[in-house]
Amino acid sequence: MTKQKESKGILGLGVLTAIASSLCCITPVLALIAGSSGAASTFSWIEPARPYLIALTIVVLAFAWWQKLKPVKEDDCGCEVESKPSFMASKKFLLIVTVFAIVMTLFPYYSSIFYPDNTQTNMQIDVSNREELIIGVEGMTCDACQNHIDHAIGQVDGVVSVESSYSKESAFVVYDKTKTDDKEIIDAINSTGYKAIEDE
User: Fold this and answer.
1) Among 25, 31, 60, 75, who pairs with 39 as Cys (CB 3.0-4.6 Å)?
2) Shared domain check, 92 and 125
3) Residue 170 forms beta bridges with which residues?
4) CB-neighbour burial class of residue 16 (10 A; exposed 0-12, middle 13-18, buried 19+)
């Protein structure tokens, strides 16, 4: 019984670290779904710890698999041995937890499927009305952050295209200056919880 509790604790730790490792990337999608865009950057402070959390998840799950697959020593004490482990202590459950941990850990790489492309790329604008803006964005840490920024800016009427980059900490926006302006785009970025860095 103690071994089962220990096994559940190890699996729980594996799930917890997998979720924590991608929490900064899951939050923008949850914010989009919930309609509370401003909460998107809430867990961006976790990003520096992400590699360590991923490593801990791998170590914990590897240990759980090692425990599950190691040969069982015959017990000479004559104690009753449980013939069939419960579902929570089974290999099937460990496999489910492992797949869940992988899905959570890889979340930043496929998070874009949750964001519709809402830029108006087919919009015809007069060349004299075309304006380009490169603006710094503070707080982006992964692809999910980029997608959230792109989605928010893309909702501004008059935006033709947007491409943000967390590695460059900026967003490149093409828009029709007769329909919108820099201030509206900056407001759209700030509404997400990330911070637009305006030139002084």
Assistant:
1) 31
2) no
3) 136, 165
4) middle
Residue 65 domain boundaries: 2-111
In tens, the pLDDT along 60-91 reads 888 888 888 877 666 555 555 556 667 777 78
How many distinct helices (H) and strands (E) make up the chain? 6, 4
Question: What are 159's strand-pairing partners?
Answer: 175
CA atoms within a 13 Å half-sphere pointing along the CA-CB vector of 75: 6
Phi then psi for residue 35, to 5 deg, are 80, 15
Angle between helices 2-34 and 143-154 (to 10 degrees): 20
DSSP 3-state of 136: strand
At 183, which amino acid appears?
K
Q: What is the CATH number of the domain that holds 182?
A: 3.30.70.100
Helix segments in 35-161, DSSP class H:
50-69, 91-105, 107-110, 143-154
Identify whether residues 64 and 123 lie together within a single domain.
Answer: no
120 contacts 160 by C-beta, under 8 angstroms: yes
Q: Which of 40, 38, 44 is closest to 24 using CA atoms?
A: 44
3-state secondary structure of 50: helix
Q: Is the dihedral of CA 26, 29, 30, 31 positive or negative?
A: positive
pTM: 0.64
